[in-house]
Amino acid sequence: MSDNTPIISFRNADILNGEATVIYGLNMDVYPGDFVYIVGKVGTGKTSIIRTIIAENSLEQGEGEACGFQLNGISQKDIPFLRRKMGVVFQDFQLLMDRSVEDNLRFVLEATGWKEEEKIAARITEVLEAVGMGRKAHKMPFQLSGGEQQRIAIARSLLNDPQVIIADEPTGNLDNETADGIMQLLTRINIEKGTAVVMVTHNRQIFEKYPGRVMVCKDEVCTEQMPDEPIDLELTI
């Protein structure tokens, strides 16, 4: 994919939460290597944008494309193939608590078509080392701290070498020091691998300390913040 071709693109898109429109006329492009924040108060549609990108929410009005798939009317059979091109990281980690870290990652690889045990084992080792969790493969998730669990979730998101990581409040359940480590990790992945990151946050400290493009959701619209323009939002300090 050319650096001039967006990985994610919306044109005049109305974003839904259930049947209610929460954002009107979204125009947004995410390019390879971008780090894009989606910020705003609770209830302004940030997570609804994420859910639309991963085809969890339908797109009824306007145009949308993600990782080569048209989001308007995307078929159910195509959604898993869309999501294989993305890595998704959630606030609450969403690890399977009844199996080890290694088996959490193996489950994803097998579900996405990996069959050769040697390649599966090598890929698990590779992504765990990439997030500094190389010695945690045999741990159960409940034996890990919140920050460690989120690192495992990020490792999981990297398994299929995604074009973009979609992160929905990935630091929301973490203390400031741990959150800082997660942001350093996401930033390093973005810079070293060129993986685009789209991250929802309500924490002003994060997007001020780790600069990127900023999309601001407010008053039923979401627009890109211009450099040096103040963000008039009551965000977490």
Task: Describe this entry's structure for a reader.
- The chain is an alpha/beta fold and 237 residues long.
- The chain has a single domain (33-58, 77-224), classed as Rossmann fold (3-Layer(aba) Sandwich), CATH 3.40.50.
- It has seven helices and ten strands.
- Strands 6-7-8-3-9-10 form a six-stranded mixed sheet, sandwiched between helices.
- Strand 1 (8-17) and strand 2 form a beta hairpin.
- Helix 4 (117-130) packs across helix 5.
- The radius of gyration is 18 Å and the shape is globular.
- The protein starts with 7 loop residues before the first strand and ends in a 13-residue tail after the last strand.
- The model has no long low-confidence stretch (mean pLDDT 91).
CATH class: Alpha Beta
Sheet with most strands: 6 strands, mixed
Strand order of the largest sheet: 6-7-8-3-9-10
- CATH architecture identity: 3-Layer(aba) Sandwich
CATH topology, by name, is Rossmann fold
| Secondary structure tally: strands | 10
- CATH superfamily membership: P-loop containing nucleotide triphosphate hydrolases
Whole-number radius of gyration?
18 Å
What's the number of helices? 7
Shape: globular
Domain count: the total is 1
Which regions are unreliable across 5 or more consecutive residues at pLDDT < 50?
none
- The N- to C-terminal Cα distance equals 38 Å
Residue share in helix: 25-40%
In brief, what are we looking at here?
By secondary structure, the protein is an alpha/beta fold. The protein has helices at 46-53, 79-84, 101-111, 117-130, 146-158, 176-193, 204-209; strands at residues 8-17, 20-30, 35-40, 61-66, 69-70, 86-89, 164-168, 196-201, 213-218, 221-224. Helix content is 32%, strand content 25%.
